[in-house]
């Protein structure tokens, strides 16, 4: 990983890296990509719930990635044809991003099986904490005050959003532990994607390479761990898996890779909170699940935290 500091995780006196130059033409589109990616990923719990009567959790995770590969490959070819300067081939950071995302999905499903969805969600939302800690301890990127303040407000909002449903049960400690491990892998995913983008790989190639690695790992997980059906038996479930692949993975993860080419990982990791807000709103709109006052307050706190932590706009052009 590069030790080049980024705008919200910069060491004092260090030179700014490529992502630090967020001019008017760079910050707005990157933020738009981040928000759109959060909404796309926020749809995934609803789609997983829709296909779960017919397809097991590890199988749905595999299909989410595998079915997206043709679209990601086409996007990669298109992007690199338009920008010949982009780096080709494999890089260690892109491969590590695939391994990190594999761990994220595997332990996320183990957490869902081993504890309540609320507990799994609550512990998974600690991923930005690990991003800041890893960047600080391992990459010497001291977090700016606004980053820490925004993260604290987002954590308070996340706890308010799902905290009323969190349960402390000694019998579910293994599932709670898997939720924390999910957060660790998700943090590593952000940092490795950021590194791959800084090394000159396009967003499409990073997402495609990482997805290929993830699909191979998940295929092994399906063979070893899946105890439920692997293939859907109705057109509705098959459509749900396709939507999970195209919207939540190709769209959500792809847009996240786009954003990580312009925004620092510390700020971009707050997308997990946006994802929780998007999931709550979509569940209200599509499933009729009521939004209580605490959920609305939690969502408001998350948006406020992200506004506090956002990178400063540079006067220079990108």
Automatic annotation (TrEMBL):
Record domain EamA: where: 31-157, 180-308
Superkingdom of origin organism: Bacteria
Pfam families in the cross-refs: EamA
Keyword Membrane applies: yes
Record InterPro entries: EamA_dom (IPR000620), EmrE-like (IPR037185)
Keywords: Membrane, Transmembrane, Transmembrane helix
Membrane-spanning ranges: 31-52, 58-78, 117-136, 148-167, 179-196, 203-225, 237-260, 267-286, 292-309
Record GO cellular component, one term: membrane
Protein name as it appears in the record: EamA/RhaT family transporter
């Amino acid at each position: 990983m590069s030790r080049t500091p980024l705008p919200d995780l910069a060491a004092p006196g260090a030179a700014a890296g490529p992502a630090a130059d967020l001019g008017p033409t760079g910050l707005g589109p990157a933020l738009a990509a981040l928000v759109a990616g959060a909404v796309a990923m926020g749809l995934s719990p609803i789609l997983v719930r829709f296909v779960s009567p017919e397809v097991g959790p590890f199988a749905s995770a595999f299909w989410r990635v595998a079915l997206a590969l043709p679209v990601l490959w086409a996007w990669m070819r298109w992007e690199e044809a338009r920008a010949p300067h982009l780096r080709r081939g494999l890089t260690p950071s892109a491969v590590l991003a695939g391994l990190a995302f594999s761990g994220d999905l595997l332990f996320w499903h183990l957490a869902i099986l081993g504890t309540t969805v609320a507990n799994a969600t609550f512990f998974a939302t600690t991923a930005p904490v690990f991003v800041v800690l890893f960047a600080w301890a391992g990459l010497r990127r001291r977090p700016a005050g606004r980053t820490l303040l925004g993260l604290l407000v987002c954590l308070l909002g996340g706890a308010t959003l799902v905290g009323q449903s969190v349960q402390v049960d000694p019998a579910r400690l293994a599932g709670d532990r898997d939720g924390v491990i999910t957060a660790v892998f998700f943090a590593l995913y952000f940092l490795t994607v950021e590194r791959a983008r800084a090394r000159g790989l396009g967003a499409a190639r990073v997402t495609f390479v990482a997805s290929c690695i993830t699909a191979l790992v998940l295929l092994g997980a399906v063979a070893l761990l899946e105890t439920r059906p692997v293939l859907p038996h109705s057109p509705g479930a098959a459509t749900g898996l396709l939507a999970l692949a195209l919207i939540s993975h190709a769209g959500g993860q792809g847009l996240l890779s786009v954003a990580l080419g312009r925004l620092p990982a510390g700020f971009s990791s707050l997308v997990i909170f946006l994802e929780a807000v998007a999931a709550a709103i979509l569940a209200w709109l599509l499933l009729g699940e009521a939004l209580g006052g605490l959920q609305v307050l939690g969502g408001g706190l998350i948006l406020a935290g992200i506004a506090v932590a956002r990178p400063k706009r540079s006067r220079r052009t990108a």
